[in-house]
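[retry 2/3] Deaminase: previous attempt timed out, resubmitting with same input.
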Amino acid sequence: MSSISATMFMTLDGVVQGLGRPDEDTRGGFVHGGWGARYNDDVLAAEMGKGMARPGDMLFGRRTWQDFVTVWAGATDGNPFTAHMNAARKYVVSRTLLDADAWQNSVLLRDIEAVSRLGGDLSVIGSASLVRSLHAAGLVDRYTLVNHPLTLGSGARLFEGPAPLTEFSLTGSVTTTKGVIVAHYTRVSPGGR
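[retry 2/3] Deaminase: success.
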């Protein structure tokens, strides 16, 4: 069985939708896209770099994988994240994708059951719907929650709908120069496993 770590960028009111760009995710009439960009700094980049430096494969939901394909696949910009993203094995969970050929080293999985049969360390960045499903199945071992100091009042939230009672222990935290708190949590109660 694999060990799954999820990194989620969120607002104080739990919104995880549309962090990067105004057009990133406008579902439900969401108009606050791009809310995270003004909070980037060297501290946050270093913290995210530590996560990228850990060995293991990546796990994506369909929407995030397709969005990342447009940004990372084939990019040669010298950004260290680019090299990592393109070299890593990427599992994408989707019932609707026909194939995962658009991005090198990508493997298509059809459901959460297929994820539960994987081995090794897996990391999820974004992919809120997938993270909700993984959490409900008791498969998330660690969270890195990147809490931004703002509220939006609307948008998709990390936990919408039922989720099993699961306890986590704070294993570390860093505050950036812009007030973002990067909190690392490890599961201490089963939560469904």
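[retry 2/3] Deaminase: Residues 9 and 146 are 5 Å apart (CA to CA).
[retry 2/3] clearing retry counter.
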